[in-house]
Amino acid sequence: MILIVCLDSxxxxxxxxxxQSRDARxxxxxxxxxxxxxxxxxxxxxxxxxxxxxxxCGVKFMFNAGxxxxxxxxxxxxxxxxxxxxxxxIYRWNRHYLSDxxxxxxxxxxxxxxxxxxxxxxSHPAITRExxxxxxx
Amino acid sequence: xxxxxxxxxSATVLILTALLLLSSCVRPSASPKNIxxxxxxxxVPFTVELDVGGTYRGSCEAIPSGSVSGEGLTYVSLDSSxxxxxxxxxxxxxxxxxxxxxxxxxxxxxxxAENGSVTSSHVKVSVSGxxxxxxxxxxxxxxxxxxxxxxYDGNSSVPVNYNNPFFTEQDITDSSFEFYGELDSLGRCTxxxxxxxxxxxxxxxxxxxxxxxxxxxxxxxxxFIDGExxxxxxxxIGYQLSGENANEKNLITGTRYMNTEGMNAAxxxxxxxxxxxxxxxxYRVTPFFKGDDLLASGVLMEAWSVExxxxxxxFCIYCFNVQPGIGIDYADGNNWLIATDDGVEMEYVLNTNxxxxxxxxxxxxxxxxxxxxxxxxxxxxxxxxxxxxPCSTCNP
Lengths: 137, 396
Prior knowledge:
The complex is a heterodimer of chains A (137) and B (396).
Chain A: E1 2-7, E2 12-15, E3 18-19, H1 24-34, E4 39-40, H2 43-49, E5 55-56, H3 61-64, E6 70-72, E7 87-92, E8 101-102, E9 111-119, E10 127-134
Parallel strand pairs in A: 1-6, 1-7, 4-5, 4-6
Antiparallel strand pairs in A: 2-3, 2-8, 7-10, 9-10
Chain B: H1 3-25, E1 35-39, E2 46-49, E3 55-62, E4 73-77, E5 82-91, E6 94-101, E7 106-113, E8 123-128, E9 157-159, E10 177-180, E11 192-196, E12 231-235, H2 239-242, E13 251-255, H3 256-277, E14 281-288, E15 298-305, E16 314-320, E17 326-328, E18 335-337, E19 345-351, E20 356-358, E21 373-379, H4 380-385, E22 389-390
Parallel strand pairs in B: 20-22
Antiparallel strand pairs in B: 1-8, 2-7, 3-6, 3-8, 4-7, 5-6, 9-16, 10-11, 11-14, 12-13, 14-15, 15-16, 17-18, 19-20, 19-21
């Protein structure tokens, strides 16, 4: 699974069942990365993409994503799928928001930072995209 | 009588007629208010009466024919009772504008055109309750009420009413406005409420607010607090949302902790959403004071995204006006250090963005941007009290 998440400056993901923030440039960037491949995500996340991507929803969407599949998680704990994550794409808002769901994978163990890219968002001055890959044993 | 004197007399009669029309249409009653009349030339003033603290939305329409354009139109107030007259969008041949009144009495406003952008010499001006509420029935919501205040449990904020704001259906509008409640008899802020829209957001950097001294204001400094100052002048409705700067009705004395950990975090979510979507968010911030305390115990922050009916923004939180490690007398803001550490001072490297602190030897320091990096010498406990968390790699 290639896991995609968006995090604030305290590793927060969501508050009150809603994403902390959004940015059209992040959506564009995700679409550039996935090309025409499907994204496993919630119906809440599907509304961000409209008809621009094939979003595979379902109650267990994060468990249905197989090896090599993209899975975008916005409002749920990700620790349940941590063992299945081959690659991790983190978009950092570089801002602080309210949080009650936090990113709960310890990337300091088992992951290596492969790439960092900073870009200007539509409503964020600087968004950082980090790509981590599973460390080879 | 010469021809130009006849014309002048005719113009005077027309102006008086217009003013009579205005005086018959304008009544100083509860918001919103309707204002209408005839503008005989682009530089003839209107005399209207405005309620104190009221915000009025209106439109400018060319009659009987002709066109108007937002480009080059200027709105000039001749009286300090009007704080702002702002253009607020164009639809067809109608230009919307907003008038904000800050003191009682009548005032004169020129609605003038530059470069001939109003091609009709007759312009009708009317003000109603808002673009979405032409009937003028909208009433600005009052402050939020709480039966009891939450107890501080170590978190900067807690959800109230299961994170559901207390707005009623009648409170909701999709027209931008901002309203700042009057100070109470002790000079304390009461509340601020707004429908945050992209048109309210500032287009320039915030100016100075140091001249405003909210109740309980005092300078208190501790070296372990970010920026060292215990107290900030906290905007109830943040500058990034409404562009409201040094308004004493919108500024309270708040701890750095409440300002950055609670209020600013909530504001950021609203600001991002409005910038991104150009949608509106109903937003209200109500400070709560116990008895005659001059320092607020905390603030209730409510937000609800209008166009998607709360699908994107929906919260109702109470932010505590506390600072970890500091004792506070809420009667007047007096404060003192609560010493809990072992007094051992060390050098640490701080990431002021992620709020993590590191040992100087930590490899993670290389990844900290220079603008976010700060060297600190002091105790570990004070850093934690200041909201910093230890790095999980070097475990300082």
